[in-house]
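Hello,

Our lab assistant flagged a job as stuck in the queue for most of the afternoon. It eventually completed. Since we weren't sure the result was trustworthy after the delay, we are filing this so someone can double-check. Below is the sequence as submitted and the structure that was eventually returned. Let us know if re-running is recommended.
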Amino acid sequence: MEEYFFVAVSNRENLRLCLEWSMAGFPDTINGVWAYCDIKVGDFITFLYGAKAYNLYRVVGKKAVRNPEALPPPWKPIFFERSGRTCHFPFRLELEPVRSFEVSLARQEFSYIAENLLQRGGYWKTHFQADQNTLYQVSNIPESPLQLPQPLGEKRGSGEVGAETFEPTFVRERGRVAGAYPMREVIVQSLLRQRLREPEVLQRLLRRLGIEGEEELEVLGEKALAEGYVDILIKRARPRGKNLMIAVEVKLGRAGRREMEQLRRYMEELGEECRAGVLLAERLSGDSPPEGVHPVRYSFGLNLSQPHTFQELQRALSLEI
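-- returned structure --
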């Protein structure tokens, strides 16, 4: 099943470039590489700027460019005088326009994403995942009468001769391997979310939780609450009447009593529709969990002091369920 993301744009000029080129670009930061790995070919995105949503696109290609200075626009490198660092935009998604609109987030169609943004007090991350119901409703928004210009194929590909592409790699310790990104928690969250989307893995987890007869579930990224952020939210894709939710907390390294109690507070805020909580960690303290909380270990079986691509980490990831 395709997923749906809202991609935050920092200023109006970047929004114009994204719309004109039908392309999303992310900086060479941990948030940028996270967005690039988290969003897959076939997924859908909408751009966010201010309090408005712009257009619906399908991702048709992904590219990480090692020497982005060799490329033409849309994104020019940004030089930070104080630090002396230059920020490039090597991570790019090629998009196919599906629906043209410019509408306020204060619409019923955007209630899931708007509530998420309101709880977190703004959008300071690169992207936010919406549920399947949002995608369905957005697909029925009347199109804008003014069609935005779309790029010619040769324009999108111009100047890319000599541009070297690469696959980003990750290591446990920052700076241990030149060019590799640190194995931050958001990367592990994305890996685990994508693993839990696999039907066989999700069904094994449901059996572990004692939840039977559920087939149409979706596995979503971070959901903001008053108490904090649920790292992964599993819920019914098309709830009728009452929903069913499973809150999942991800920890990089060791987790124990404090993390279990934190997850229990998230479950209480989600209410009676939250049937269980899952604490995913590499190491568990052995403390007795609160009612409804299920600690589960994950592992990679790799030497994480050496660089590995996102795909290599995906293949090596296992859950003890």
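-- support follow-up --
The delay was a queue issue, not a problem with the job. The result is valid. The longest strand covers residues 91-104. The domain at 182-319 is CATH 3.40.1350 (Trna Endonuclease; Chain: A, domain 1).
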